[in-house]
Amino acid sequence: MDAEITLRVDGEAHRLTVDTRTSLLDALRERLGNTSPKKGCDHGQCGACTVLLDGDRALTCLALAVAHDGAEITTADGLAPAGELHPVQQAFLDSDAFQCGYCTPGQVCSAVGVLDEFERGWPSHVTEDLTGRPEMTSDEVAERMSGNLCRCAAYVNITPAVQQAGGAR
Protein backbone atom coordinates (compact mmCIF):
# COMPACT_ATOMS: atom_id res chain seq x y z
CA MET A 1 0.00 0.00 0.00
CA ASP A 2 1.30 3.45 -0.89
CA ALA A 3 0.79 6.77 0.87
CA GLU A 4 1.47 10.34 -0.18
CA ILE A 5 3.50 12.31 2.36
CA THR A 6 5.32 15.61 2.69
CA LEU A 7 8.72 15.86 4.33
CA ARG A 8 10.49 19.14 4.94
CA VAL A 9 14.17 18.27 4.65
CA ASP A 10 16.86 20.87 5.32
CA GLY A 11 14.33 23.64 4.79
CA GLU A 12 12.83 22.33 1.54
CA ALA A 13 9.41 20.65 1.25
CA HIS A 14 9.21 17.38 -0.67
CA ARG A 15 6.00 15.61 -1.63
CA LEU A 16 6.42 11.92 -2.40
CA THR A 17 4.54 8.66 -2.59
CA VAL A 18 6.04 5.87 -0.51
CA ASP A 19 5.19 2.31 0.41
CA THR A 20 3.87 2.40 3.99
CA ARG A 21 6.75 0.12 5.03
CA THR A 22 9.45 2.56 3.85
CA SER A 23 11.79 3.75 6.58
CA LEU A 24 12.48 7.43 6.90
CA LEU A 25 16.14 6.64 6.14
CA ASP A 26 15.25 4.96 2.84
CA ALA A 27 12.90 7.81 1.92
CA LEU A 28 15.69 10.32 2.53
CA ARG A 29 18.45 8.40 0.77
CA GLU A 30 16.71 6.50 -2.02
CA ARG A 31 13.76 8.74 -2.81
CA LEU A 32 15.18 12.21 -2.09
CA GLY A 33 18.86 11.55 -2.79
CA ASN A 34 19.98 12.92 0.58
CA THR A 35 22.99 10.80 1.49
CA SER A 36 23.92 12.68 4.64
CA PRO A 37 22.28 10.13 6.98
CA LYS A 38 24.11 6.82 6.54
CA LYS A 39 22.79 3.28 6.61
CA GLY A 40 25.05 1.52 9.08
CA CYS A 41 23.27 -1.26 10.90
CA ASP A 42 19.64 -0.65 9.83
CA HIS A 43 18.66 -1.80 13.34
CA GLY A 44 18.96 1.38 15.44
CA GLN A 45 22.19 0.28 17.05
CA CYS A 46 24.90 2.46 15.48
CA GLY A 47 23.47 5.99 15.13
CA ALA A 48 24.86 6.62 11.64
CA CYS A 49 21.36 7.54 10.44
CA THR A 50 20.74 10.17 13.15
CA VAL A 51 19.01 13.38 12.09
CA LEU A 52 17.09 16.10 13.89
CA LEU A 53 13.41 15.26 13.58
CA ASP A 54 11.22 18.19 14.61
CA GLY A 55 14.22 19.45 16.58
CA ASP A 56 15.05 16.25 18.46
CA ARG A 57 17.63 13.66 17.47
CA ALA A 58 16.16 10.52 15.97
CA LEU A 59 17.26 7.31 14.29
CA THR A 60 15.76 7.32 10.81
CA CYS A 61 16.27 3.60 10.22
CA LEU A 62 13.70 2.86 12.95
CA ALA A 63 11.16 5.45 11.82
CA LEU A 64 8.51 4.84 9.19
CA ALA A 65 8.31 7.69 6.70
CA VAL A 66 4.49 7.72 6.80
CA ALA A 67 4.57 8.29 10.56
CA HIS A 68 6.38 11.58 9.98
CA ASP A 69 4.23 13.19 7.30
CA GLY A 70 4.78 16.94 7.62
CA ALA A 71 7.88 16.57 9.79
CA GLU A 72 10.78 18.99 9.80
CA ILE A 73 13.99 17.04 9.23
CA THR A 74 17.47 18.51 9.52
CA THR A 75 20.43 16.48 8.34
CA ALA A 76 24.08 17.35 8.90
CA ASP A 77 24.00 18.98 5.45
CA GLY A 78 21.14 21.23 6.54
CA LEU A 79 22.92 22.55 9.62
CA ALA A 80 24.89 24.98 7.46
CA PRO A 81 22.57 26.02 4.64
CA ALA A 82 24.41 29.27 3.89
CA GLY A 83 27.75 27.50 3.63
CA GLU A 84 29.11 28.65 7.00
CA LEU A 85 29.75 25.73 9.31
CA HIS A 86 27.54 25.07 12.33
CA PRO A 87 29.52 25.37 15.63
CA VAL A 88 29.37 21.57 16.04
CA GLN A 89 30.72 21.00 12.53
CA GLN A 90 33.51 23.50 13.16
CA ALA A 91 34.34 21.86 16.48
CA PHE A 92 34.57 18.45 14.80
CA LEU A 93 37.05 19.91 12.32
CA ASP A 94 39.03 21.74 15.00
CA SER A 95 39.23 18.62 17.19
CA ASP A 96 39.89 16.18 14.35
CA ALA A 97 36.85 14.27 15.59
CA PHE A 98 36.55 11.92 12.65
CA GLN A 99 38.62 9.48 10.69
CA CYS A 100 36.83 7.70 7.85
CA GLY A 101 33.86 10.07 8.19
CA TYR A 102 31.11 7.50 7.73
CA CYS A 103 29.56 8.11 11.14
CA THR A 104 30.26 11.84 11.17
CA PRO A 105 26.89 13.16 9.90
CA GLY A 106 25.05 11.13 12.54
CA GLN A 107 27.57 12.12 15.22
CA VAL A 108 27.16 15.79 14.31
CA CYS A 109 23.35 15.67 14.40
CA SER A 110 23.45 13.79 17.69
CA ALA A 111 25.86 16.35 19.14
CA VAL A 112 23.50 19.18 18.19
CA GLY A 113 20.72 17.29 19.98
CA VAL A 114 22.96 16.70 23.00
CA LEU A 115 23.74 20.40 23.29
CA ASP A 116 20.03 21.21 23.09
CA GLU A 117 19.39 18.70 25.91
CA PHE A 118 22.01 20.50 28.01
CA GLU A 119 20.35 23.85 27.29
CA ARG A 120 17.01 22.41 28.40
CA GLY A 121 18.64 21.13 31.60
CA TRP A 122 17.77 17.49 30.92
CA PRO A 123 19.70 15.03 33.09
CA SER A 124 21.26 11.86 31.73
CA HIS A 125 21.97 8.49 33.31
CA VAL A 126 25.24 9.80 34.75
CA THR A 127 23.98 13.18 36.01
CA GLU A 128 24.75 13.27 39.72
CA ASP A 129 22.58 16.22 40.81
CA LEU A 130 19.13 15.77 39.27
CA THR A 131 17.89 19.06 40.71
CA GLY A 132 20.58 21.26 39.11
CA ARG A 133 21.67 21.87 35.56
CA PRO A 134 23.90 19.13 34.19
CA GLU A 135 27.55 20.03 33.65
CA MET A 136 29.16 19.29 30.32
CA THR A 137 31.72 16.86 31.70
CA SER A 138 33.41 14.20 29.60
CA ASP A 139 31.26 11.54 31.30
CA GLU A 140 28.04 13.46 30.54
CA VAL A 141 28.95 13.97 26.88
CA ALA A 142 30.14 10.38 26.44
CA GLU A 143 26.91 9.02 27.97
CA ARG A 144 24.70 11.20 25.80
CA MET A 145 26.66 10.35 22.64
CA SER A 146 26.80 6.62 23.45
CA GLY A 147 24.14 5.78 20.86
CA ASN A 148 26.48 6.87 18.08
CA LEU A 149 29.20 4.37 17.33
CA CYS A 150 32.46 5.12 15.57
CA ARG A 151 34.19 2.10 14.10
CA CYS A 152 37.44 4.08 13.91
CA ALA A 153 37.18 4.85 17.65
CA ALA A 154 37.57 8.63 17.33
CA TYR A 155 35.77 9.08 20.66
CA VAL A 156 38.82 10.65 22.26
CA ASN A 157 38.31 13.60 19.90
CA ILE A 158 34.51 13.51 19.57
CA THR A 159 33.86 14.23 23.26
CA PRO A 160 36.08 17.34 23.34
CA ALA A 161 34.53 18.52 20.07
CA VAL A 162 31.05 18.40 21.62
CA GLN A 163 32.36 20.20 24.70
CA GLN A 164 34.00 22.85 22.49
CA ALA A 165 30.79 23.38 20.56
CA GLY A 166 28.88 23.62 23.83
CA GLY A 167 31.13 26.46 24.89
CA ALA A 168 30.60 28.19 21.54
CA ARG A 169 26.81 28.25 21.86
UniProtKB/TrEMBL annotation:
UniProt entry keywords in alphabetical sequence: 2Fe-2S, Iron, Iron-sulfur, Metal-binding, Oxidoreductase
Pathway connected to this protein: Alkaloid degradation; nicotine degradation
PROSITE patterns the record matches: 2FE2S_FER_1, 2FE2S_FER_2
Tagged with keyword Isomerase: no
Signal sequence, start to end: none
Origin: domain of life: Bacteria
GO molecular function: 2 iron, 2 sulfur cluster binding; metal ion binding; oxidoreductase activity, acting on the aldehyde or oxo group of donors
InterPro entries assigned: 2Fe-2S-bd, 2Fe-2S-bd_dom_sf, 2Fe-2S_ferredoxin-like_sf, 2Fe-2S_ferredoxin-type, 2Fe2S_fd_BS, Aldehyde_Oxdr_Iron-Sulfur, Beta-grasp_dom_sf
Domain 2Fe-2S ferredoxin-type span(s) in chain numbering: 3-79
PANTHER family on file: OXIDOREDUCTASE WITH IRON-SULFUR SUBUNIT, OXIDOREDUCTASE, IRON-SULPHUR BINDING SUBUNIT-RELATED-RELATED
Protein name: (2Fe-2S)-binding protein
Lineage start: Bacteria, Bacillati, Actinomycetota, Actinomycetes, Geodermatophilales
